[in-house]
Specification:
Layout: H1 3-12, E1 15-18, H2 27-36, E2 41-45, H3 46-52, H4 54-64, E3 67-75, H5 85-102, E4 107-110, H6 119-140, E5 144-146, H7 151-154, H8 163-173, E6 178-183, H9 184-187, H10 193-200, E7 204-209, H11 232-241, E8 248-250, H12 255-258, H13 262-282
Parallel strand pairs: 1-2, 1-8, 2-3, 3-4, 4-5, 5-6, 6-7, 7-8
Helix pairs in contact: 2-4, 5-6, 10-11
């Protein structure tokens, strides 16, 4: 088997769906539906984990042969969600322990909104929090991934909006246990994203695939993969060129998919990914 075939096989083994895509389903419905379609991974949403229970989750995922590509999310260290700094850090440390028990590929971090802080203060607050949390993450063997969020739909979630800012924070914290999530919905419509990928890949823990018919504005609104403006094929080809072999996790939420059943969304997603994989392979 040649090197590309090995890489492609690894990638196929880590195709995942985020539970945010099937938010109204139970945990068991998620696991059964994903596994029955040939997905091998699941992006876990913490409220669903809390409702279902950690021990039951571990047992269910073993039965379904699903690996955990991500646990989502921790953060809000700037106080933008009403919690204090210490409370948000303690919550993140608890999530690190859950991620370790789940053998999750990464624990996703959202910085929090700027929350009337000057930007430099918000950045220092985030870096201070990450330095505390990576100490625990190292102890438990967990990787943290900072996710840049498009300012058009996520100012209250994160003041970190682009790849350069994300890489700068990773460099400041200086831990191999901190990397990033690249969500194509949030950064994929930036014409510079492909140029940034060679710098991003060494720090990249997870790629989340999302598409949209226009740049994010207001509520998050993703469309079915391949029906929007995000150059998914180009991004995947570039990631392959620079040897990204990590998980591909799909997240689909918003008005453009609300009229579709979850079964329709999952079926379309699997077909799209299978076709896209073939095209990338033939390039």
């Amino acid at each position: 088997m040649d090197e590309f075939s090995t890489s492609q096989e690894t990638r196929m083994n880590t195709l995942a769906i985020s539970q945010l895509s099937t938010l109204r389903w139970s945990f068991a419905e998620d696991a059964n539906a994903y596994a029955s379609r040939g997905f091998n991974g699941i992006g876990i949403y913490r409220p669903k984990l809390e409702d279902f229970g950690l021990d039951r989750t571990i047992e269910l995922l073993a039965e379904a042969s699903l690996s955990v590509t991500s646990l989502s999310w921790v953060g809000g260290f700037t106080g933008s969600d009403g919690r204090g700094f210490d409370e948000a850090v303690i919550d993140a440390m608890n999530a690190v322990r859950d991620a370790a028990n789940l053998q999750a590929g990464t624990l996703i971090v959202l910085a929090g909104g700027q929350n009337n802080h000057i930007r430099n203060h918000a950045r220092r607050t985030l870096c201070d929090a990450l330095k505390e949390i990576v100490t625990i993450a190292k102890e438990f063997g967990v990787r943290l991934s900072l996710e840049p969020i498009h300012p058009g739909c996520g100012d209250e979630w994160s003041f970190v909006n682009d790849l350069q800012s994300t890489l700068d924070i990773i460099e400041t914290v200086g831990s191999p246990h901190l990397g990033l999530v690249l969500d194509t919905y949030h950064v994929g419509m930036d014409e510079e994203v492909v140029r940034w990928l060679p710098d991003v890949v060494p720090h990249l823990h997870l790629v989340q695939l999302g598409d949209a018919r226009h740049s994010p504005l207001g509520e998050m609104n993703r469309c079915l993969l391949g029906e929007g403006c995000v150059p998914i094929r180009t991004i995947l080809e570039t990631l392959r060129e620079y040897d990204y072999n990590g998980p591909l996790e799909v997240e689909l939420i918003g008005e453009d998919v609300e009229s579709l059943s979850y079964n329709e969304i999952l079926d379309h997603t699997k077909t799209f990914l299978d076709q896209m994989t073939d095209r990338v392979e033939q390039r």
